[in-house]
Amino acid sequence: MNRKLGLIMTVLMGLVLTACASKPKPVVDTESTKPVITETATIDRNAFGSGYTVSDLASKFGINGDPLNYKVLYFEYNSSAIDERSRIIATRHAQHLGEKGGLRVNLEGHADERGTRDFNLALGERRAQTVAQLMNAAGASSTIETISYGEERPVDAAHTEAAWKANRRVEIKY
């Protein structure tokens, strides 16, 4: 009888100790730049559907908060190629348009003053069309219209590199 009682007590003590054990604390590797993700810590690597964390959006691209708050996309000289910052913003607008549906959107393409009037009108149109294609591919379910103003509506009329950079843009208008 003592033997059975001793065996039962041993099993019960094992169960009690197992049930009362605390969960292990997460381990943080301070030597590495990669964060350690455990079940108690999660990092949002897809903030606003961008594929980046909120802090990456701010530090790498200057996007503070929701990219939907930004409505101007900038381009390099004589180019209609979309950089990563502009892709993130345009994709977020496309997601928003897909959620809302039925909204009308105007994409206004602009160029700096360098180049002929006809060249700048064509460049502004290519920029707006590039953004429209990206937004449609990203799920925008709205009517997207493009228009080019070329060099006719500068945001900065100065004749400096900073002014030209500000004028090479597509504005998203709802």
Determine the fraction of residues in helical runs and give it as a percent range.
Answer: 40-55%
Distance between the termini: 84 Å
In DSSP terms, counting alpha (H) and pi (I) runs of 4 or more, how many helices? 5
Largest sheet: 4 strands, mixed
C-alpha geometry: elongated
> How do the strands line up in the largest sheet?
1-4-2-3
Whole-angstrom Rg: 28 Å
The count of strands amounts to: 4
Global structural class: alpha+beta
The CATH class name reads: Alpha Beta
Element layout with pairings:
Layout: H1 2-20, H2 54-61, E1 72-74, H3 84-100, E2 104-110, H4 117-137, E3 143-150, H5 161-167, E4 169-173
Parallel strand pairs: 2-3
Antiparallel strand pairs: 1-4, 2-4
Essential attributes:
four-stranded mixed sheet; alpha+beta; single chain; elongated; 174 residues; 41% helix
